[in-house]
Amino acid sequence: LVVLSLSASLSAVEIVAHRGFSSRAPENTVAAFKLAWEQGADACELDLLLTKDGEIAVLHDEDAKRTTKVPMLVANSSLAELQALDAGSWKKAIFKGEKIPSLEESLASMPLGTKRFLLEVKSGPEVVPVLAKKLSKWRLRGHQLCIIAFNRTVAQECKKALPWIKVYRLSSEKENKKPVDLTKLIADTKADGLDGLDLGLKWKWSEAMVKQIKDAGLELHVWTVNRPGDVKRLAELGVDGITTDDPVMARNALEKK
Ligand code: G3P
Ligand code: CA
C-alpha cells in the first residue's frame, strides 16, 4: 500500500518541458512545444522578451545569434524582423524554417484542458502591461497559465496586474550564494510558489525545508533536471513539478517500478 501511494504521488508531479522538448527540437519554437504536448509533458516552459515594437517574442537570449546565427538584439528589433530568421536549423536540418514564435503563436499550440504554460518573463517591468493586455484574452483558461520570474518587481507587478494567474518566483544558486529562507522569498513577492534551480542537488535541501514551503500552502518546482536519478529523488522529496529538457526521460523515471 505504501509503495502504491508513493508511486501515485510521484506520477502526480508536473513534468515541465524546458523551452519545449528542447533536447529533441529547437528550444522555444512551436515545433518544440508541439512535440512536448504529443509526448505527454504536463506543461511547457517558455521565455519571453519585449520587442522594439511592443510585441512579445519567445526566445531565451537578448540576442538572437545563438539560435538563429544572426546577431540581432531583441530590444532593437521588431517582431517581424525577428520572425524572418530561421530558429530551427541550428538544432537539426529538419527544423529549417522554424521561426521565433510570438507569445500568441506559442499559446495557441496548447491543447484545451489541464496542460499549462510556464511563462518566464525575461524582460523588465516595462513588459508587464503588454503581457497583461495579451493575457486578458486568456481569462477563461487562466488555470493553464503560470508566470515565472527572477526579477522581484516583475513578479510582484505580474501578480498585481494578473491576479487570476499563478506566479512563481524563480530562484537560483547564482542569485543566492547561500541557502535563503525560501518561504520568505516567496512571501516577499506575494507569489504562489517557487521555481528553484536544481533544488536538493547542490544545496542539499532537506525534506524539512521542502515541508516548510508546502506547509505554508506554497508550491515548489525545480529546474532543470535532466538525470533520471535526480528526477526520482526530487519527486520523493515532495516537489510539485520538475522542469526538464527531456520530458519522456522524466516520465519514465517517475513511472519506473
Ligand atoms: O524554468 C526556469 C529556467 O528556465 C530558468 O533558466 O536560463 O533556462 O531561462 P533559463
Ligand atoms: Ca527559462
Helix and strand arrangement:
Elements: H1 2-11, E1 14-17, H2 30-38, E2 43-50, E3 56-58, H3 65-68, H4 79-83, H5 103-108, E4 116-121, H6 128-135, E5 145-149, H7 152-161, E6 166-171, H8 182-189, E7 193-197, H9 207-215, E8 219-223, H10 228-237, E9 241-244, H11 247-255
Parallel strand pairs: 1-2, 1-9, 2-4, 4-5, 5-6, 6-7, 7-8, 8-9
Antiparallel strand pairs: 2-3
Helix pairs in contact: 10-11
SN-glycerol-3-phosphate binds next to strand 2.
Descriptive report:
- The protein has 257 residues and is α/β, with parallel strands linked by helices.
- The chain has a single domain, classed as Phosphatidylinositol (PI) phosphodiesterase (TIM Barrel), CATH 3.20.20.190.
- It has eleven helices and nine strands.
- An eight-stranded parallel barrel has the order 1-2-4-5-6-7-8-9, surrounded by six helices.
- Strand 2 and strand 3 form a beta hairpin.
- The longest helix has 10 residues.
- The relative contact order is 0.14.
- The model has no long low-confidence stretch (mean pLDDT 90).
- The chain binds SN-glycerol-3-phosphate and calcium ion (CA).
- The site of calcium ion (CA) has 3 residues, from strand 2.
- The site of SN-glycerol-3-phosphate has 9 residues, from strand 2.
Percent of sequence in beta strands: 15-25%
How many whole angstroms does the radius of gyration measure? 18 Å
Largest sheet: 8 strands, parallel, barrel
Q: How many separate structural domains?
A: 1
**Average pLDDT number:** 90
Instruction: Give the CATH class.
Output: Alpha Beta
Global structural class:
alpha/beta
How many helices? 11
- Specify the CATH architecture: Alpha-Beta Barrel
In quaternary terms, these chains amount to single chain
Shape: globular
Our measurement of the CA-to-CA distance between the termini, rounded to an integer number of angstroms, reads 14 Å
> Count the strands?
9
Bound molecules: SN-glycerol-3-phosphate, calcium ion
How do the helices and strands follow one another from N- to C-terminus? HEHEEHHHEHEHEHEHEHEH
| Poorly predicted spans | none
Give the helix level as a range of percent: 25-40%
